[in-house]
Amino acid sequence: MNCRRVRRKFVNALVLFLSGVAALIGLAMLAWILTDTAFKGISAINWDFFTKLPAPPGEEHGGLANAIVGTLILTATATVMSVPFGILAGIYLAEFGRGGKLAAAVRLVADVLTSAPSIVVGVFVYLALVRPLGHFSGWAGAAALAILMLPVVTRTTEEMLNLVPDAMREAALALGAPYWRMMFQVALRAAMSGMLTGILLSVSRVAGETAPLLFTSLNSPYWAVNLNQPMPSLTVTLFNYAMSPYEEWHSLAWGAAFLITMSVLAFTILSRLWLRGVNRERS
Hints:
By secondary structure, the protein is mostly helical. It folds into 2 domains: 2-44; 47-282, MetI-like (MetI-like fold, Orthogonal Bundle). 78% of the residues lie in helices and 0% in strands. The relative contact order is 0.14.
């Protein structure tokens, strides 16, 4: 009995030690990436970076203003396209399709899309939109990003609604509230914090995607706010500049990497702090 207890304690201590080492390695790698990106990218961040268009090869004082605006437009459009459908799909799975064959199929598709490589989604949108229309466009890029966001929002919404106790639903219905009012004023309000977390995580995920945009929105060195035309983005511009032989473009690529990394990091931290404040006010 004592030998078994000693063995359990030893295994427990060993697993805790290995888990701690793995966590430290992960944190060290993250700190290394952030430090290296900041060290090499912060030198490219200046007023020209945010206000000027890309300069021709060999010229200095160029910027990535068009790519920054294009990234914001693509991400915002994809969010508008995916979030309403993802929330509605999650509500169906959690409230109306429990145990149904259609709900099981939807869950399977959502899980497959969550783990699918983003380049596969880009090829699909290329074949579905770009090739039939005959040109790249911002709409195609936003559609590819929306497809990547949709399963995350759907599954998060479903899981958060499943965490809402059935007693809360039953209490609202017992007071005479219609089912739709119970959904909006009880179930969705109780699950709102988790749902917003899923939405914010999906936005953070697509903000750094490159592969699907290469097949859909392509890129442009000019100002482009028309979604019917090829749309510039920071990620594709970073990809192109990193492979170029020009030092000035390499510097701008590091600046783009720094901006994307810090923006996603700040967006994630601020959103979590905001959600924590919302939860404290409700409690």
